[in-house]
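Researcher: I've been going back and forth with a colleague about how Putative oxidoreductase might be arranged in three dimensions. Neither of us has a model we trust, so I'd like an independent prediction. The organism is Selenomonas ruminantium subsp. lactilytica, in case that matters for your notes. Sequence below.
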Amino acid sequence: MAKYIVVGGVAGGATAAARLRRLDEAAEIILVERGGDISFANCGLPYYVGGVIPRQEDLLVMTPAKFRGLFNVDVRVQSEVVKVDTAARQVTIRHGEEEYPESYDALLLSPGAQPLRPPIPGIDHERIVTLRNVPDAAVLKKLVGDYPQGRAVVVGGGFIGVEAAENLQAQGLSVTLVEAAPHILAPFDTDMSALAEAELRQNGVKLLLEQGVQEFLHHEDGTIGVKIPQEVLTADFVVLAIGVRPDTAFLQDSGIELGERGHILVDEYMQTSAPAVFAVGDAVMTFDGLTGKKAALPLAGPANRQGRLAADNIAGKKRKYAGVVGSSVLKVFSLTAAATGKNERALQQAGLVYGKDYRYTITYPNDHASYYPQAEPFALKVLFSLQDGKVLGAQAIGKKGVDKRIDVLAAVLRLGGTVYDLEDLELAYAPPFSSAKDPVNMAGYYGDNILQGLTNPLLPGELAAEQERGALIIDVRPPEMFAAGHVEGAINIPAAKMREQLDKLDKKRPLVVICKIGMNGYFMERMLKQSGFEVRNMMGGFTYLQGTLPK
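Model: Here is an independent structure prediction for Putative oxidoreductase. You can compare it with whatever you and your colleague have in mind.
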């Protein structure tokens, strides 16, 4: 009879233990968990703090007793593996004051990650907290109750930071979010994250960018001073959300190879450098499914898939992991923001150049047919290779329809698809749900048009250079839109009247056309090009220039 030890529960470890039982009813399976909960909804923690999830017990996906009964697994909570001896195939487990050895035939490591607490002076205050597990959430929820209408500072503009800020604001607190980088939400490019930033501000969150915390001051009145370059913020409590580090200190002398930052290095079978030892979840360094390079992605989705696959390989099935592509989604008040694959920063860091190696499309489709009530526009950005049209990444943000489009694009990206494949996708359609030409199809058409040379869209950052070389800016929106705001120096010729004005335009002068969201501008671009004009259309129209969603 085989004996398996799983270190750590939650997404990776609990998934692996359950899969092992389904594959091997006779095996002895031990699940060792340092905390008291083996499977909880860590992604739901901010929403418990915000009252969206009303009861703490709703966060518990599976109790130790239920897991033990359902899968016949020896669940040992409040127990910690403090040493791994790979040569002897043995671990040392600490429970309270007691330590004891336990042998294994195969070991699966899912220790997870710990929130970062950098050595900032004054960080050791009891009301400077993190949000990683159920006890953390309970502490933060108590602070919300202790300081009704109080002042909270959230440090870090990643997913947890943004979700914490929203939920604290919803509880009536005055919330300031401090981020050291120029923008929040690293998976998104600046043009997209700016939409989320505007949503935070519109809902009362004070957002301070490029402001790293220098010190935490412990004031005599009990408040906390958060010192940043521009000022000292006053807070009743602080939430740290500046990232995580692999929780792998117990493996330092185990013979298991670790990366520079402590990640457990694994191969395509999720096996470590030690025989019969596998690892999954937030603590592992796997690889990028698009580039093949090493990558770590501490998200629940990859952890679940890795846990299942590692269990299969422990049971002898030899299944390869496909790597990570980086798909994510979050709620930002009334908006949904989602992304998959590479953003521009990642492409540029890899040496790719816009206009030479890759380009992107910006569209503002409605989530469903515009004539059906309550249609809402969203922003969709799709990045693709200029060599073969392969989809490299996508981002979207808006009130509705965002997640399902990014899910479609994530599937195409995972399968190595191109913008041509986006054109050919047959997606479910009825007016309440989409349009006959789905937004994903439309992004494919746009990319195809670029690759064919039918359009050479202009980016907002390129407009000044066009003006310097004497280009005439033609705004083709209706007069009332033009009057409400336009590019300085632009003239207004509504799209429906453009053909009547052709004889008044100088074919020796380059043209730039701007519409509301880019579509009518493209129609005019094609007509003008075929009429002998040199012309470029503004990507995303005046909406993209303004950095907003269509109104």
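Researcher: What would you highlight for our discussion?
Model: I'd start with this: The chain is about 25% helix and 25% strand. After that, consider the following. The chain has a mean pLDDT of 96.
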